[in-house]
Design goal:
InterPro entries: A-crystallin/Hsp20_dom, HSP20-like_chaperone, Small_HSP. This protein is of the alpha+beta class. It is about 15% helix and about 35% strand.
C-alpha cells in the first residue's frame, strides 16, 4: 500500500485543528447517540463499535448520567506496522442531564453488536392520571 506523506500531514493537521480542507469546523463524535420516548420509558442508544463490554462504564450522580467507553488499539505489537489509522482511540464519555420525571433507580442497560441501549422509565409521579371530579352530593356524603 502506497502512502502520500503530504496527505497524511493534511489529515493530521485537520484532526488537530478541528477543521476540514475547506476550513469548516468539524468535530467527529466517537460516541453518537439516538434517544426517543417509547410508552413509559426513554430509550437511549449509543454506537460503540469495537468497544468490549468490560471497557464501558455507566454512572449516575444526582440526575447526570455518564457513559464512558474506551476503544483500545487492535493489531498492536512489535512486528505490526500500521498502514492506516482513522478510527478514534482512547477514552470517550457522554453526559446526559436527566429530568426529575425519570426513575433513575430502575435504569436498564444492555449491549449488543456494538450498541449500548439504556432504558430509563418515567417516574410514577410523572405519568398522566385521571382526576376525579367531586359533586355537591359527594361532599355532603363525606361530611355526613
Amino acid at each position: 500500500m502506497r502512502t502520500d506523506p503530504f496527505r497524511d500531514l493534511d489529515r493530521i493537521a485537520a484532526q488537530l485543528l478541528g477543521t476540514t480542507a475547506a476550513g469548516t469546523w468539524t468535530r467527529p463524535n466517537p460516541m453518537p447517540l439516538d434517544a426517543w420516548r417509547s410508552g413509559d420509558e426513554f430509550v437511549v442508544c449509543f454506537d460503540l463499535p469495537g468497544v468490549s463490554l468490560d471497557a464501558i462504564d455507566i454512572d449516575i450522580e444526582r440526575n447526570v448520567l455518564t457513559v464512558k467507553a474506551e476503544r483500545r488499539p487492535t493489531g498492536s505489537g512489535d512486528d505490526v506496522e500500521v498502514q492506516v489509522s482513522e478510527r478514534p482511540l482512547g477514552v470517550f464519555s457522554r453526559q446526559l442531564f436527566l429530568g426529575d420525571t425519570l426513575d433513575t433507580e430502575h435504569i436498564k442497560a444492555d449491549y449488543d453488536a456494538g450498541v449500548l441501549t439504556l432504558r430509563i422509565p418515567v417516574a410514577e409521579k410523572a405519568k398522566p392520571r385521571k382526576i376525579q371530579i367531586a359533586t355537591a352530593d359527594d361532599r355532603q356524603a363525606i361530611n355526613a
